[in-house]
Amino acid sequence: MKKFVLLSLIALLIMGLAPAVYAQIDFKAYGSLTAGGVMWKNFSGSTGPILSPWALRPDAGNGFDRTSNFYSSYANIFFEWNAGKDVRGVFNIETVNYLSGRNLTGYPPAAEGTEFDTGLWDTRVGETRLRNAYVQFGVPYFGIPVPMTISAGVIPMNVRPAFTFSSVNGAGIQWDIKVDPASLSFIWGKMAEGNTWAADDSDFYSLEGRVKAGPATIGGYVIFNDMDTYPINYNPVKSSYEADFWWLGLYADGKMGPLNFNFDFAYDTGKIKARESVFGPGVDDAKYNGWATQLKLAYPSPWKLTFGLTGMYASGADTKKTSKAGLPGDDVAEPTSTAITSKVKSFVVPAGGSQVPWAESMFLGGHFSTLIAIPQQMAYASPWLTVANRGAIGGTWIAKLWAGYPVTDAYKVTIWGMYIGDNTKNGNTLGDARKSDGRLRDDKNIGWEFALIQDISLYKNLMLTFGAGYLFAGDALDQAVTATTNKSPDNPWILDFKLAYNF
Asked: 112 pLDDT band (50/70/90 cuts)?
């Protein structure tokens, strides 16, 4: 079946390029330049310990209860060539600067992959990287009265990006079909290719359908991760594991009377298998089943004030049935148990995603005001790019009240307060506090988060955003210092700003 789909796409690609069409080429360039910074306490990026929400544990002596910060700048530039309305080419590059100053002068300029990184002290030895390079064309009808578009090359890949899968650019093909009021999109992408003569590659497939139904758009999708090497291995070396994962999702966006609403539901199921039964009978695979749902309501009042409610629930794992990495044969996360990993009930997002898409919280997923998303690396999410992982929300739930008000045409304020709960069983999603007998403590309160976002339009294309968040930490954030003692962190907080020029 997979071969048939790929051959069909290739045939359509050939048909699209076959006609000798000569047209005027229109060129345009656009993109964005951004600069910003983040300061925080007891909060981390993707290098933090799996069960900790900040960079260093209490016994490490550096990051716990200390203030950290970074400055960053970024450029994202698109070049586009249009040959009429049916054919266009897109080329997109970006400079890479995760943390300014992370390298000093003297860094080897010939080192591979270091060109044009604006975070380097000597930017001549920085890094630039390709994001997109693809051709997009309308498929000639050939008697089939259905508008179809093919995108082939290094393409952007998004499936319900605010909730499930986003921010990926990779080698693949996208096939779009549109018949008002419905549309259909199929994506195939090559996540990793090892030896071309071996079954050790990883592929991404998705099928998404949408239909306009009155004041609402209703959609659904299927995502399939076919990974013959797991975790995804970018070197030609076979892993001890392989995995198949499926995601089934439903969503709706629109109006319901005076309310605007956004609804999401996603279910994941899959299995990680050992290539050989090296762990003994009954421990050669780990099964995954999890789910998440969210409802967001907004009421735009006659007084320009918009306020709303957001509720989200994402299933959590059981530490007596899964390890931190969720691999078969591993000891489970619960330190006093002799069991091995068999089931992961936490909601997980697809492997290969480059950023956490969920943005309802400044602490769980990296809010839109943050210059770069700061994904939490918690249980069942290590390393987060190469495995199916709990993303920003697996093992948590929230109840959020928020409001936004345009004080002037150039100044908008958004505030919110939310409760964040813990769904992990026999342990905690973020913390790893233990009981006096060494067992993991099971707490339910991650904390109360409050945030203030300010958007200031300095000029037509220049936006300055300030964000401030404070979390009153609950017991579920306590960290183990020894096998039987714990320490409560100071309340986490974060301040950030972003200056963005779009052209």
From this structure: very low
